[in-house]
Amino acid sequence: MSRYFTKTLEQLEPYTPGEQLKRADLVKLNANENPYPPAPGVAAAVAETIPGLRLYSDLTEAKLTEAIARREGVPASCVLCGNGSDENLLLAIRAFCDEQTPLAFADITYSFYPVLCQLLHVPARILPLRQDFTIDLEAYHGLGCTIVIANPNAPTGLLAPVAAIEQVVRANPDHVVIVDEAYVDFAGEGASCLPLTQRYDNLLVVRTFSKSRNLAGARLGYCVGHPDLIADMNRVKFSYSPYNINSMSEAAGAAAMADEAYFQKTLAAICAARADTTRGLRQRGFRVLDSATNFLFATTDRMPCAAIFAALREKGVLIRRFDAPRIDNWLRITIGTPQQMERFFAALDEVLAGTGAE
User: Fold this and answer.
1) For residue 202, what is the DSSP state?
2) N or C terminus: fewer CB in 10 A for the chain?
3) Rounded to whole angstroms, how far apart are CA atoms 307 and 299?
4) What pLDDT, on a 0 to 100 scale, did the predictor assign at position 127?
5) φ and ψ at 81, to 5 degrees?
6) What is the pTM of this model?
7) Residues 227/78, Cβ–Cβ less than 8 Å
8) What is 42-259's CATH number?
């Protein structure tokens, strides 16, 4: 830290992403990325933008916004695109929180929420998950502040019922409830709160292209809410980053959103591998939470999870481990292709055998 760094941020602890090792034979299961390539039409759509790259991108992201609106069955005025869902979260917290309006969220959830609170000088109100890692949604009734709920939650992978979240929205009529649905496509039919945005003017649903849409590198996200909420967020966006989506990413996103068949195909493949991996881990004595995402949250008493993480890393298999209280002996494992999961289990079996446990 230089002597010029602002004193107001000297306590800031940046978000820690999954490790990005550069190694040809790596099995990368630590960042919840999609193991399959983007939809077949994405490359051509991106190539078509090249002649126009001398010009600024579309301020309204009309092509992408309309593709999202068609797919989600909402008016385009209810959609706002972002540079990853993280930007949508930043815009929402900046628009709907301040020093007198805290942001409430769970103690075990997406760790970017507290970072944004620190960065934007927004007080955080942290509510603990239950002992079984489920969210106590009744505790969010009538909080008197902005709320963000990751559903399914990360890193636990657990899904809360839409009806229970709707009760939170109804119990906080004078404050915005943000539902972060980064992983909801892996949760099956009826898991999304997005349809509720057409009934409640205080509900904002945030989505990403990084997981189920195979475009983590494009940095695309979007949110859906009442047009007044979208207008508020646009006011913030146009105050700091009007051209937040580049032309290539917009084209990639629109092409990915239009290819429903490919979306469903890769989604089904990941969910099938998730079921197989869950069974494999439980057969090896792991406790695995029931996941509604593209990753698993697991623990074991066969050996410390920190040792498993380190040993797998040495074998070129990256998974994720957190040092946070309550989850420091848990592992988060992204679901890859069947071939990647075979390599994961082969390496895991070697690690476990090395302890004398088998």
Assistant:
1) T
2) N
3) 12
4) 98
5) -90, 155
6) 0.95
7) yes
8) 3.40.640.10
